[in-house]
Sequence to fold (95 residues):
Amino acid sequence: MRLVQYKCPSCGANVHVEEGKDRYFCSNCGAELHVDSGEVIVRHVDEAEVIRAKLEVDKEMQRRIEADKAGRSLRRLFIGLIIFVIASIILMRFE
Fold:
């Protein structure tokens, strides 16, 4: 296994990569680096943006869970009302 040395275009740190690998991460700044025919392409991951996006997804999931709970409660109430009306009709026929 031969190691190839690249300079991270994002922070300038030396990064050692196994020859033949086309994707790796800078251990200094965390940037995702791609090697395409000897040329290094940087994709920097904004950790704050990743956390913000995860929080948005979590908030949306919580909203959907709450909406589902409210929907189930409403359905139960509606079913109870239907059962009450049917029982009342049946009882009125026997009077």
User: Anything to note?
Assistant: The longest strand covers residues 3-7. Residues 47-93 form the longest helix (47 residues). The radius of gyration is 30 Å.
